[in-house]
Amino acid sequence: TEDILTQKSLREYLAEYASENNFALSKTHKKAAGYINEIAANYNTRAIHYGAAFLKWVFGNIFEDLVVNQQEVNRMRECSTQAPLILVPCHKSHLDYLLIPYIMHHNNMPCPHIAAGKNLAFWPLGPIFRRGGAFFLRRTFKGVPLYAKIFAAYLQKLLYEGFNIKIYIEGGRSRTGKLLPPKPGGLAMLIDAY
Fold this sequence. Notes:
Largest sheet: 4 strands, parallel
Mean pLDDT: 89
Low-confidence stretches: none
Radius of gyration: 18 Å
Strand order of the largest sheet: 1-4-2-3
Distance between the termini: 20 Å
Number of strands: 4
Number of helices: 9
């Protein structure tokens, strides 16, 4: 939290935001810190290791086999040595956010931080997902410019620290199994952060 709030550009924005809205700067900082706590993952490699073992058991019981293009996985690994990976898969089911990190972990690659809807932050799954790398976002940023700025600063921090990031281009899961139209907001924020 402190690392993000001490970024020079964000400090300037917070001061400007507080002034424009007649808020005390301390109140604005407190609100910004609350947004970071609402968003941030609590990435934990031990939790990821246990989660991978659990998923191996689950996938072994529900699938006959997982077919993986090992050449593409090797290509991903090679690219990840040069810069963080930005993974932008479609989101047809809840298995989407489990399979790619599982395959990456199985191939000795760091699991990505995963954009997840705030609706998945409920107890007890929210804390488990956070430890697995999930960071949570609201469905819309409209009317909450401070939240949007904090979210963008969080993405910037993830990229700066070299974390792989996975976002869904549709902005949510398909309820019908069909692809949804793209919502490029998250991708635009990542490009701006870069």
